[in-house]
């Protein structure tokens, strides 16, 4: 089947997340909220990258399956709609592995060694042995994830553009070697830059599971308020009577994202004049957070694990059909198909 026959009238988007646990506000603001908006504009494929989780967690994969269910529940709770997007599990679509194997045959080793996160993750995850074939080669699998759907765009933040550029290079090299009737099979995906606002964790650093400073999408209100009570603030406010600056405070960053203009005005006036204390300011921030979290949590409560698994399996079947269409072309281009040999 030709690519033109496969294309819908909408551009195709592909993205995914590793199942490392329940998703947090950073995941939502940095990716999920943007994905939800894309559903009506693009043909969307969103997946859970369980094979990618093995690149760092291969020694103990026991949590990958339960985490996969939690991530799918968070996907659905955030507003991803299986009627609008294909929601699937990477390992249920074996064509990802087949294309990764074939792409790996022509991908230079030096390309993989220069990926920014290769040395960075080895330095940060010193408690794990990452000198493995799987960890070195994960960018090829990532390229396969994208190229198997012949995606037009990959939505990423600015810090992830290098990964998409490598995928473009992998596709370009494949297309140099292999074509079908003179036609390139793997289109080079473009970066779709998405808003990625500064969202601090409770310790003031970037919100991340590895730092243990997250606010989960599924955290009930008392837990959210308790976490915010411990959040670091402007270091200039040592005493209640000391004035502060919301522009230098992690709690102020939360207000900018989640509070109303009226609340922001009270925060700026009260903090700079020491008219309010940090506890009151944090309580207002929690009010704003809960306005975002409550509808997400309400949707989550209405979805069972069984329903989430059914949606994953159904989406994976749909993804496999589309992935196989690409693989038919890839095998043909590489002259790996028996029909090519027989001239059928």
From TrEMBL:
Keywords: Aminoacyl-tRNA synthetase, ATP-binding, Ligase, Nucleotide-binding, Protein biosynthesis. SUPFAM superfamilies: Nucleotidylyl transferase. GO terms for molecular function: ATP binding; tryptophan-tRNA ligase activity. The keyword Iron does not apply. GO terms for biological process: tryptophanyl-tRNA aminoacylation. GO terms for cellular component: cytosol. It catalyses: tRNA(Trp) + L-tryptophan + ATP = L-tryptophyl-tRNA(Trp) + AMP + diphosphate + H(+). Pfam families: tRNA-synt_1b (PF00579). Belongs to the class-I aminoacyl-tRNA synthetase family. This is Tryptophan--tRNA ligase. It comes from Candidatus Sulfuritelmatomonas gaucii.
């Amino acid at each position: 089947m030709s690519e033109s026959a496969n294309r819908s009238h909408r551009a195709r988007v592909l993205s995914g997340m590793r199942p490392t646990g329940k998703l947090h506000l950073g995941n939502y603001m940095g990716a999920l909220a943007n994905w939800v908006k894309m559903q009506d504009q693009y043909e969307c494929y969103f997946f859970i990258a369980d094979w990618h989780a093995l690149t760092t967690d291969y020694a103990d994969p026991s949590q990958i399956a339960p985490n996969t269910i939690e991530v799918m529940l968070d996907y659905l709770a955030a507003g991803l709609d299986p009627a609008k997007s294909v929601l699937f599990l990477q390992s249920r679509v074996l064509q990802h592995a087949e294309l990764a194997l074939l792409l790996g045959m022509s991908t230079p080793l030096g390309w993989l060694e220069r990926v920014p996160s290769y040395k960075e993750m080895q330095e940060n995850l010193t408690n794990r042995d990452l000198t493995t074939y799987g960890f070195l080669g994960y960018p090829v699998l990532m390229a396969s994830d994208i190229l198997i759907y012949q995606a037009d765009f990959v939505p990423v933040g600015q810090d992830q553009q290098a990964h998409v550029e490598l995928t473009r290079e992998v596709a370009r090299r494949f297309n140099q070697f292999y074509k079908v009737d003179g036609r390139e099979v793997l289109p080079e995906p473009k970066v779709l830059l998405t808003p990625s606002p500064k969202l601090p964790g409770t310790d003031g650093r970037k919100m991340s599971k590895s730092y243990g400073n997250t606010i989960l999408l599924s955290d009930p209100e008392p837990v959210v308020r308790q976490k915010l009570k411990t959040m670091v603030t402007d270091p200039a406010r040592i005493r209640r009577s000391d004035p502060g600056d919301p522009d230098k405070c992690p709690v102020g960053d939360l207000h900018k994202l989640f509070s109303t203009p009226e609340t922001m005005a009270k925060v700026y006036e009260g903090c700079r004049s020491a008219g309010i204390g940090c506890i009151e300011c944090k309580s207002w921030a929690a009010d704003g957070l809960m306005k975002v979290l409550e509808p997400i949590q309400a949707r989550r409560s209405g979805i069972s694990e069984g329903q989430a698994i059914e949606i994953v399996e159904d989406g994976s079947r749909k993804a496999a059909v589309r992935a196989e269409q690409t693989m038919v072309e890839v095998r043909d281009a590489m002259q790996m198909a028996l029909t090519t040999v027989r001239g059928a």
